[in-house]
Amino acid sequence: MNLPQNNLIRIVKVTIFMLSFCAILPLMTYAKTANTAVPYLPSDLRNGKIQCSKELSSQEITYVKRNCYKNNNIDYLPVFYVNPNDIFMPSDSKVVESDTTANINMKKVIPGGMTVGIRINTNGVMVLRTEHVSDINGMTHKPAEDILYPGDLIVSVNGRLAENKEVLQEEISSSEGAIELSIKREGELFESTITPIKCPQDNVSKIGAWVRDSTQGIGTVTYINPNTMKFGALGHGIMDVDTKKLMSVGNGSVWDADVKSIKKGKRGVPGELVGDIVLGKSLGEVRMNNAYGLYGVMNNDIEWLDESTVAVASKDEVTTGPAHILTNIGGDCVSKYDIVIESLNKNSCDNSKGIVIRIVDDGLLDKTNGIVQGMSGSPIIQNDKIIGAITHVFVQEPTKGYGIFIEHMLGQENGF
What we know:
The chain is mostly beta strands. The chain has two domains: 10-24 and 98-121 and 214-415, Thrombin, subunit H, CATH 2.40.10.120; 31-35 and 123-213, PDZ domain (Pdz3 Domain).
């Protein structure tokens, strides 16, 4: 792809989305803040099952989808929450179970393979961990202990939408007493309070919590729907590097990226593409992040986009044997590389690992030693049809990796 020439373009150094661990290493921007909330862990959740019949309070939910879905033997109830300003925030970490086999053979998509820069803001402020703070008398406190947990999302504070960590800190600093929090944990929304502690070192009130509100990295687009410009990428979810939990997307954007170099993989040490995000004109929006990948909508005026399409194969059409992938490991060119599909598990409980592939292309092996971090999302083509995407690398055998069937990714389009 040809990067736009623009005097306003800014280059942002990033770390590639981690392939083998289904996560990203973001540019770290932490804010030391504090929060408190009553622990909330219903018995049915502790037992590994959320009952579909359970409903939250009317203050927490404005709309509840009536359908219950099954994901790895856990039933859950996807809901839409409302923030204090009546802005809907969908619970976007749940996989959309959709029967795409009926019309899969009628679909055609634009195959991906291009690397893009991805910047996302969380759907609330994510809690990373809690810690002690000291008061003016030298006493130590842990205000958020047993209230906030890693992966919690602070949705609002004192009735104000927690759009970012700055809003959270402003409310904490200006509060004369306890602050009121709306917190989302494992899809459940609840209310609680926490009392900040004023620290003598900087005279700032804190609740003893490390938080994050955004992240960024580079990943590979799998496909674009030519009719709607909806896209799927990565083939696995973006996980927070600290909490190891799926990041809940409030909003996000897609940008051009420039792959600069390659760190070759070796046994026990995954390789990596090294590149930059090119901040010129945004390519599109990020709308959803779940276990099957990152999803959103591309703009209609992407100059470098090749609008040639390929047919989509159902997983029943996929066979072991020769295939190829499309990927960009340098410059602005998406190239084709030979692989072999070694095995298939069409009923896998982890759909991101339904395909096992092996790289056999000498050109790719010479450059990367196999699959490297950053190739996640590279489309797999067999018999002139897109059948899936690379998702993981075997750390101990970098020439091999997992893939997801394309029909699972396409089904996610119904979720946004």
